[in-house]
Amino acid sequence: MPVLAEETSVYPDDLLDAPQDADAWEAETPMRRWWVLSTKSRQEKALVRELLRFEIPFYLPLAKTGRIHRGRLVCAHVPLFTGYVFLYGTEEERVRSLTTNRIARVLAVGDGDRLRSELGQIDKLIASGAPMTLESRLAAGRRVRVRRGPLAGLEGTVHKRRGRTRLLVSIDFLQQGSSVEIDDFLLEPID
Question: What's the whole-model pTM score?
């Protein structure tokens, strides 16, 4: 079974970077805002291929998974949040994305800066290569920040599972997130 190469998950590459000068960045993209596209079943990658063709900015968090198929390890890149693609565009680009016929619903985002920050943290978590677990319907816990290591600077909620400490990085808008096992000594509480 052929293994496909990893596809583009973010366009443009600096979409999730924190702007150095927020006012200048807002002046550069005055009419753009964040939208969450709820896709039809198993249409996430096909949708982002079309958004890339239209040059519409998007983010699709992809997680690397491995499974055994006919005695061989097969790796795949699957959407972390099944059924969701994050679009950063104008009203015209949102309408253009609807012409793909791959979208079931469009959700407007009230706090775009917060969503950008949360997506940036998810992207950093994915880039770390640490094994992740998808978390849904989040429960309240203690907010922490990672002090050092490859995940330094990430903020999330700490919780325990099977006696192990996990850092949960969430997208509050979707009430979903991803968690990774982490040592307690790497964490500091956020007051």
Answer: 0.85
